[in-house]
Every structure is written in structure tokens, then in C-alpha cells.
Amino acid sequence: MLRSGAAGSLGRVVRKPKLPTRVLSKPLARSTAKPPLPSSLALTTYKGFSTSLQRYQTSDRIDIKHEKEVAKEHLEPHPDQVSSVSSVHQVFHEQGVKEPEKDEDMLAGIKSDWKVVKATFALDEVPREALYIGFAGVLPYMATSLSTVYLAFDINHAQDWGTGFLFSSETAELILHVIEPIQIGYGAVIISFLGAIHWGLEWAKFGGSHGYRRYAYGVVAPAVAWPTILFPVEYALISQFLAFTFLYYADARAVVKGWAPQWYSTYRFVLTFVVGTSIVLSLIGRGEIADKISKMPGPADRMKALKDSQLQSFAEEEEAKRQRLAQEEEEEDEEDEDEDEDEED
Questions:
Q1: Of 185-189, 300-304, 340-344, which range is least confident?
Q2: Greatest mean pLDDT among 41-55, 261-275, 295-309
Q3: CA–CA separation, 248 vs 268, rounded Å?
Q4: What element of type H or E holds 48?
């Protein structure tokens, strides 16, 4: 009974499934479609486990003879090659393999700095007319500054060797006293002009109309510039240096606010840099000969001298009046004495 039940179940498993049949009403047509898969799979042929692993067996075999020869070799110790990292596997390169040396560019830092300077002084967006006239405007400042440096060199040369290289000491000092007021006066004119530019921008309504806030630039600049011509030379140059620096900061702020073109800040920086360098050179030149030349009287000294001369003239006039009054009194006294004598007679 049991045997017949097992045989019946095995027959049900091995028996091939019946495929569904379809009645074709039309002639059989050529089709590229794949036939449908059976709804159940039949048992596949059994393959041994060893047969399925044959494909994964390797063909390399251990050479026992060679291994024995290597085992007989004596290993030499190398303590100098042992370190804390000798047994660490390197991630990016192999230990003991000499890497090719990389050629370092020794001028890389200089090239980088040059690129920064070039980008800072780039004036591509500045109108050519404004660029040319602006550089022409700083030429007198540079000329007076370089002249001051050369005249200081000539005066020092005359002090050391008895004669100047091109001018005598007296001639160089005289020319220096002529150049000083020219440089200071020209600096005052330039500072006033920089303030007046904002008046033009306000009249053109560049960035809108801002009224007194923008007009203040044109008022403060000459108010700061022109009193410097009354200072001694060193104080005048230092004051004008500070004025140029302050005006550059004000112009840069105006660009940020939209009150001036975008290129104006770079344009002003370059011109201010040239003028500031010229002022520093003039101060260095005068510092080298501060104790070797006579101090030229400046406008303040002249005003003081004029005031002293006026006071002296006023004192002399008062003294002359007192003498004249005293003389008149003496004459009146003599006349009174003469009259008294006549009356007694």
C-alpha cells in the first residue's frame, strides 16, 4: 500500500506537464515572439559536486624542490633598515621605491605676487583720456620729488668732497628752496581738484542726486589743502600725504555707494600711490640734509616777520610822536618863559 502510494507520487512529479492548446481560427503566421515558458519546471539531470567544482581548480602548483632550496638560504640581518614605519604598508606608494623628485618652481611665489600686483594695477576699464591726463598730472609731483632727492645728494656730496657733483652747495640749496613751495602749492591744487570731481558727478546726477552730502567732498578738500601752504615744509608734506590718503578712502566709499564709476577706485589708488611715493621720497631727501641747509622762511615765517615789522613800525611811530610832543612842549615852555621875561621888563 505504501509502495503504491510512493510510486504514484513519484509518477506525478516526473510526468511532463501538459501544455495548453489553442484553437487557431486563422492560418499559422510567422512570428518572432518567444514561446511561453511552462508553468512548472521538470527535474534536471543530477550532476556530481566534484564535477561542478572542476572549473574553479587552479593550475598553479607548489614547487616543493624550490621551496626547500629557499629554506636552506641564510638571511642576512639589516638593522639599519628597520624603523617604526618599515613594516607599515604605504597607501600611496611602496616602501623602498624611490619616487621621482618633483621640480619645484623657485619663482612661484614671485609669480604669484606679480599676478596680484598686475591685477591690482589693472586699468583696462579706465577711459584712455582720463588715464593719460591723470598720469600727466602727477608728473610735476614726481619731478619735484626726484629733484629734491638729487639736490640733497649734491649737497651731501659738497659737504664730503668740497664741491657738488653738478651744482655747488649754495646753488643746490637755492634751487631746493625754489622747488619746495612749488611742490606744496601743486599738491594743494591737486587735492582741491579731487574734491571738485564730486561736484561734477553731482551735477551729472551720476548714481542719483545726493545734495549736500556729495557737495561736502568739494568743500572739505580745499579747506584741508590750502592751509598746508602756511606750514613748514615737512609738516606740509605730511599733511598733504594724509589728505591724499583720506580722499582716496572717501572716493573708494563713493564707488561702493554707487556715486562714482566702478573703475574710479582703482584709478585713484594708482595715482595716490604715485603721489604718496613722491612725498615719501621728498621727506627722505630733506631728512638727509636737515642739519646742512638753512631753513627757508615759509609763509608762516613771513607772516610772523610781517607782524613783527608792523609792530616795530608802530613802536617807532609812537616813539616819534612822543618825541614830537615832547619837543612841542619844550617849545611852548620856552615861549612862555620869553613872555614872562618880557612882562618883567
A1: 340-344
A2: 261-275
A3: 6
A4: none
Contacts of 275 (CB under 8 A, 6+ apart): 138, 141, 187, 190, 244
Cα gap 29→24, rounded to integer Å: 10
Structure-block grid coordinates of residue 50: 566534484
* Cell numbers at 305, concatenated: 616777520
Across 200-212, average pLDDT: 91
Mean pLDDT of 131-139: 92
DSSP structural state of residue 60: -
For residue 279, give Cα distances in angstroms to 46, 166, 307.
Answer: 104, 24, 31
Q: What HEC string does 294-335 produce?
A: CCCCCHHHHHHHHHHHHHHHHHHHHHHHHHHHHHHHHHHHHH
CA dist 267 and 148 (Å) reads: 27
Q: Cell triple for residue 13?
A: 512529479
Which residue reads 589728505 in cell numbers? 243
Angle between helices 264-288 and 128-161 (to 10 degrees): 10
**What pLDDT does 299 receive?**
67
Tell me what pLDDT residue 337 has: 75
> By mean pLDDT, which of 79-83, 88-92, 233-237 is the weakest?
88-92
pLDDT single digits (tens) 90-121? 555 555 556 666 667 777 788 888 888 777 77
- Provide the grid cell at 198: 564730486
Q: What are the pLDDT digits (tens) for 240-277?
A: 999 999 999 999 999 999 999 989 999 999 999 999 99
Q: Is 237:283 a contact under the CB 8 Å cutoff?
A: yes
**Nearby residues of 226 by Cβ (< 8 Å), 6 or more positions away:** 188, 192
User: What CA–CA distances, in Å, run from 337 to 57, 330, 344?
Assistant: 163, 11, 11
CB 200 within 8 A of CB 218: no
Residue given cell 618599515 in the structure block: 86
Degrees to nearest 5, angle at CA 127 with 121 and 133:
85
72's grid cell = 636552506
Q: Is 38 helix (H, G, I), strand (E, B) or coil?
A: coil
